[in-house]
Design a protein that fits this description.
heterodimer, A: mainly alpha, about 80% helix, about 0% strand, elongated, B: 10 helices, about 5% strand
């Protein structure tokens, strides 16, 4: 049962990875590409990592529990740092005077 | 003079490249290193030093001289940056202060300037606005980064890690603090003198441990001699000796990273910078 749940979660996470990487190439400007990159780091990582944590907990022992805990830690820290990094990059872009893309300025 | 230098570099480079053709290929099973040294390390590490991680035992025990002078090289890099870049704070011509109650920015030239206080806040001349999101996240994470660094240092015996890696992570935590806030706040907490002292102390811990072995009547860097001091048998003493040395490496690497960062980011003034 846990195998199926984790499989579905990992597949959903990979879907977000795909969407994010397509967006990084296809979207028109710096800021919207960063938005796509942010999806990969948060949603894709959350889903695929929680899938892996459930897969590890298939057989509950102390070692497996610790592994799952470490995976959860990875998710927590990436959740804290990745949006901050995206924010910092956007902030630097705006301060350097990069105009956001609009319909009429290309 | 420049042409002479270029010719020398080209000659040395071509000589080095010419003689690399005599080296054994990568992964060559018949090279002397794979025939004699590697099997010995792989087979005897655990019974010689009680360290499961072969890399750590080779790095700090079997080839301890190499690592000791690597640490010295790092100290030399820090010293070189200091000697090349450092200029006195007097060289700072203009200082900008924000008077908080009125919101006025004042510029001071020369030697007379107010003390920094709650009312007068020093700001950089290439002003970076105070960013509360980045500042808060970094403050939240720095503790965890430092704990992780200590884990990496202490866990070098069993997993990838050790003094160099842990020291770099420790240094990076202070550099992150300097980037997220400002350089002066970081220097207030981990000053230049502290950095210089720590980088020398790290090398001293390494060389001192090695010399202590000689004082106790064995070879230089033969940690088995430390057994009576550490109160363990000779094999465990080698394991503990590696750990002591790793701590020295971590201290040196951390301090030198921070020291180089201070000098590079502020162009040697250690006053305004990233």
């Amino acid at each position: 049962m846990t195998v199926y749940i984790s499989g579905i979660l990992i597949a959903c996470g990979l879907f977000f990875f795909l969407v994010g990487s397509i967006g990084m190439i296809r979207l028109p400007d710096f800021y919207s590409r960063l938005h796509a990159a942010g999806i990969i780091d948060t949603m894709g990582l959350l889903l695929s990592m929680s899938g892996l944590a459930i897969l590890v907990l298939n057989e509950i022992t102390l070692g497996n529990f610790l592994s799952a805990l470490k995976i959860i830690f990875i998710v927590v820290f990436v959740f804290l740092t990745s949006p901050t990094a995206t924010h910092a990059i956007v902030d630097a872009g705006i301060r350097a005077g990069l105009k956001p893309w609009q319909k009429n300025n290309i | 003079m420049k042409i002479l230098g270029k010719i020398t570099i080209l000659l040395c480079g071509s000589l080095l490249l010419f003689f690399t053709s005599d080296f054994p290929d990568f992964g060559d099973a018949n090279s002397p290193a794979s025939l004699h040294l590697s099997p010995y390390f792989i087979e005897h590490t655990l019974e010689d030093t009680a360290v499961p991680n072969v890399v750590t035992s080779v790095l700090a025990d079997y080839r301890g001289y190499d690592t000791m002078f690597e640490t010295t090289v790092i100290l030399t890099a820090g010293l070189a940056c200091f000697l090349l870049l450092r200029i006195p704070k007097r060289a700072v011509k203009n200082r900008y202060y924000l008077h908080e109650p009125t919101g006025v920015t004042l510029r001071f030239e020369g030697d007379k300037y107010p003390q920094e206080s709650d009312v007068f806040k020093r700001i950089d001349s290439s002003w970076v606005p105070y960013d509360i999101i980045i500042n808060f996240t970094c403050r939240l994470l720095i503790h965890f980064i430092q704990i992780f660094a200590l884990y990496v240092v202490a866990h070098g015996h069993h997993s990838p890690g050790g003094g160099f890696q842990g020291g770099v992570v420790l240094g990076a935590s202070v550099i992150l603090f300097a980037i997220s806030g400002n350089l002066r706040a970081a220097i207030k907490r981990f000053g230049e003198k502290t950095a210089a002292l720590f980088s020398a102390t790290g090398v001293f811990i390494y060389a001192g441990t090695a010399a202590l072995c000689m004082v106790l009547g064995e070879n230089f860097i033969d940690y088995a001699a430390l057994a009576p001091i550490l109160g363990s048998d000779r094999i465990m003493a080698r394991s503990h000796g590696i750990f002591i040395v790793e701590i020295g490496v971590a201290v040196a690497v951390m301090a030198v990273m921070i020291w180089i960062y201070y000098n590079l980011s502020s162009a040697g003034k250690q006053d305004e910078g990233l």
